[in-house]
Design goal:
The chain has ten helices and no strands. It is mostly helical and about 180 residues long. It folds into two domains: about 50 residues, Orthogonal Bundle (Arc Repressor Mutant, subunit A), CATH 1.10.10.60; about 130 residues, Tetracycline Repressor, domain 2 (Orthogonal Bundle), CATH 1.10.357.10. Helix 5 packs antiparallel against helix 6 and helix 6 packs antiparallel against helix 10. The longest helix has 28 residues. The termini are far apart. The relative contact order is 0.13.
């Protein structure tokens, strides 16, 4: 997972993968079938383990605005954690892929869409709870925050600190529907 996170799908070689896993080429083929197979497993592991904070922040028992503020803070923390590569494996993955990697690009776009759908659902719940104005375009707000978070991932990858990411998030909250 860390190889793919750090170097991307195309930048990670078969030899690097078997070395990192400490297995033979035949064991790799028997276990995963292909580089694409291990990439799918790595991204699923990332979503289940490394990105657990995203779902936890969205499911907090606070108001919707406070939930998004906590999500910004959790994003800044995760994207700058010293124990992992900077940024987000999903945000940065597959955006520039060779034509033979269309399946990877589409898979990663679908995973990014899942995050926006989760944010949209939380915003819709906020409308029902009365703390998000009725008539708010939840899909547009979710897409906006998805764009902010992907930008924060790029900024983190380029060396931005947690504090710099928090400033970006604070500015993003100025777009909150009123």
């Amino acid at each position: 997972m860390n190889l793919f996170w750090e170097q991307g799908y195309e930048g990670t070689t078969f030899d690097q993968l078997i070395t990192a896993m400490g297995i033979s080429a035949s064991s790799f083929q028997n276990s995963f079938g292909s580089k694409e197979g291990v990439y799918e497993e790595a991204t699923q592991f990332y979503l289940e383990e490394k990105r657990r904070w995203f779902a936890e922040a969205l499911s907090g028992g606070t108001g919707t605005r406070e939930t998004f503020e906590k999500l910004i803070e959790a994003t800044a923390d995760a994207f700058t954690a010293s124990c992992d590569p900077a940024g987000c494996m999903i945000s940065l993955a597959g955006t520039h892929a060779a034509p033979e990697c269309d399946r990877i690009r589409d898979m990663m776009a679908a995973k990014r869409t899942m995050s926006e759908e989760a944010m949209c659902q939380r915003l819709e719940a906020g409308i029902q709870a009365g703390d998000v104005p009725a008539g708010t375009d939840c899909a547009a707000i979710a897409a906006f925050f998805g764009t902010v978070f992907r930008g924060m991932a790029v900024q983190a990858r380029d060396g931005a600190t947690r504090e710099q990411l928090m400033k970006i998030g604070s500015l993003a909250m100025k777009a909150w529907p009123s």
